[in-house]
Amino acid sequence: MATPLDAPDFEVAILGTGFAGLCMAIKLRETGERRFVLLERATDVGGTWRDNTYPGAACDVPSHLYSLSFAPNAEWSRTYPTQPELLRYLRSLAADNGLLPHIRFEHRLEKAEWDGEKRWWRLTTTGGVVTARKVVSGTGGLSEPKNPDIPGIETFRGTMFHSSRWRHDVDLAGKRVAVIGTGASSIQFVPEIAPVVAHLDVYQRTPNWIIPRRDRTYSETTKTLFRTIPALREAHRKSIYWTHEARVVGIVLHPALMKGFQRLAERHLKAQVPAGDLRRKVLPDYTIGCKRVLISNAWYPALQRPNVTLITDGIAKIEGNTIVSTDGTRREVDVLILGTGFYATENPISSSIRGRDGLLLSEAWKDGEEAYLGTLVKDFPNFFFIVGPNTGLGHSSMIYMIEAQVAYIQSLFRHMVAASATTLEVSPVVQDAYNHELQKKLKGSIWATGCKSWYQHRSGKITVLWPDFTFKFLERTQAFQASDYLLDHRHRQAA
After folding, report:
1. Element (H, E) at 309
2. Which domains does the chain have, with CATH numbers?
């Protein structure tokens, strides 16, 4: 159907083709909506699971929970899905649901501007300009790699790359390699590259609590049963869900209970690392759960290899191909790998989005990101976030949250249609009250017990995590109150 001259190019523009973007697009098609586009900066779908191809890349949430409830996969090979498996799953979602014709690849967003007169968004991308009545951002909170602020790093004379932009063309065999960071990515790729390199220096700022990785392969018999008896597969998924959901009791409701969980990590450490200097270096001084809990059976053994050195002194500067520690020690390396995470609380994309009266999202969020139900931001009409502020989890699968938000956004779309409204946005009073409630609850959580983590904005405000059971989030998104929203009832332009 041709687009009228006085209407935007699309009814909905979706940013990103990871789990969030694809889920939103699938649900739009189910409602009969065809005037939508997915804008993707890369040449393939997949988001996080397309970009993170480092050795050993895998998810730390079980496969059968880390997949869309309406698109189950009986063929998962093991408890925890690997990056190649997840990418295949996402590619199949796009192809099997007829999404590929809706995707514009190599369309990186440069700026998004709200046109208050026309009541739509103008999106400038590397592939051209697109206009859309509504925008759904599915770019996620961990999409932009963050490099460390180290004097002289830009002058490094060797090969340097971030773990999320892995250089597979670089042969690490026989090289002197340094890794900065000991987070979720590093504990996966360090054990993979340690046997290959000549020497590996691992720079640790803060140790993490690590628990055993209870991973196993699914037998062909099990996969056949999951395939032929859907109720069995669904029961397996539910058992995983409720096991993970129980952790909220300690994380949010009664943080003191985390001491019991911590004993599991302590036993894991003592079983794998002999008493001595290394054990002291990797033993955290904060209660488990304050920072992200990691799972690995291979991290501690990798650090004990004769060609691996764990360095806990800070980095003063980099000179040429030499890393200089704060104690003055100089270590030459050929390859520098940055396992330093992402912009989780100050995503650069916020500097590209202008709402009402030209307000930059980064300015609206200068004191810390916030939204209503992680989805709507006051003064940014018709802009919807998936995996927005305070929707992250420290205990379960983000796919559950994504599906809840997609369903919520669909209910908002229906509300607009029923009211013949051109625009929708959250009431400022409602957003402020909601975030006051959130922050009050977060102050009593395990995440507020004193450690510094990527969950926190530089102001100290916890802007990443949802402080409750995931089913409570679902209930909040389903409890629709029309009075929470501001609508523009001007005559809707032809569509």
Report:
1. strand 308-311
2. 10-144+343-488 (3.50.50.60), 153-214+240-338 (3.50.50.60)
Q: What integer pLDDT is reported at residue 257 of this predicted model?
A: 82
Cα 92 vs. chain centroid, distance in angstroms?
21
Of 314, 300, 309, nearest to 333 by C-alpha is: 309
Q: Which residues pair with 317 in a beta bridge?
A: 324
- Region of residue 359 (phi > 0: left; psi between -120 and 50: alpha; otherwise: beta): beta
Mean pLDDT of the chain: 93
User: How many Å apart are CA 191 and CA 307, to the nearest integer?
Assistant: 12
Q: Give the separation between CA 362 and CA 349, rounded to whole angstroms.
A: 8
Distances (CA, A) of 279 to 191, 266, 303: 17, 10, 10
Contacts of 269 (CB under 8 A, 6+ apart): 210, 279, 282, 283, 300
Closest CA to 476 of 425, 408, 424: 408
- Closest listed residue to residue 48, CA positions, set 25, 19, 71: 19
- Which residues face 337 on adjacent strands? 161, 179
How many other C-beta atoms can be found within 10 angstroms of the C-beta atom of residue 118? 15
Mean pLDDT across the stretch 376-383? 98
Name the DSSP class of 448. Answer: G
Calculate the alpha carbon distances from 430 to 101, 473, 478, 483, 485 in Å.
38, 16, 16, 9, 8
Helix (H, G, I), strand (E, B) or coil at 271: helix
Crossing angle between the packed helical segments 19-30 and 398-418, to the nearest 10 degrees? 40
Q: Does 5 score more than 70 pLDDT?
A: no
Dist CA 439 CA 459 (whole Å):
13
The pTM of this model reads: 0.95
For the stretch 318-361, pLDDT in tens is 999 999 999 999 999 999 999 988 766 677 889 999 999 999 99
| In contact, 204 and 310? CB cutoff 8 Å | yes
Query: How far is Cα 331 from Cα 322, in angstroms, rounded to an integer?
Result: 5
**Cross-strand bridge partners of residue 128:** 125
**What pLDDT is stored for residue 344 in this prediction?**
62
Count helices and strands (H / E) in the chain: 14, 20
What tokens were used for 131? 């206009």
Measure the CA dihedral 328/330/336/338, to 10°.
Answer: -10
Rounded to whole angstroms, what are the CA distances from 210 to 295, 344, 422? Answer: 5, 21, 50
Q: What is the C-alpha separation between 193 and 337, in angstroms, rounded?
A: 11
Q: How far is CA 104 from CA 43, 81, 220, in A?
A: 9, 28, 38
What's the confidence (pLDDT) of residue 448?
Answer: 83
Tokens for 2?
């041709």
Q: What is the DSSP letter of 75?
A: T
AA letter at 451: C
Q: Is the confidence at residue 477, as pLDDT, over 90? A: yes
